[in-house]
Design goal:
Elements: E1 2-8, E2 11-18, E3 24-28, H1 30-34, E4 52-54, H2 59-62, H3 68-78, H4 85-92, E5 101-106
Antiparallel strand pairs: 1-2, 1-5, 2-3, 3-4
Length: 109
Amino acid sequence: MRKAKILYKDEEAGILTQHDDGSFTFHYHDYWIADSSKPGISLTLPKSKQEFHSKFLFPFFYNMLPEGSNRQVVSKYNKIDLDDYFGLLMTTAKDDSIGAVRVIKIEKQ
């Protein structure tokens, strides 16, 4: 299982988890939901107490990935399999991404 913090404008909004079977869940933190000034991170992941489930990486996050030769360069340079979308996401969206959302790997404790 791998996890990442999802930051919206540098504030932690929720957690994205990849389970051992390759499926994903995303949930917002309770304090994010309780604050009416905090938005949902995307239209497809609206602010809700429910946990979102998917057999594949959610399209919102998948669309944050580099494409084509950029993906190949990132994959080779960081020694990440081209099909490891979650690994690529945590590598490429941790420091700089288009939009307000960043993805920060949670190290195993």
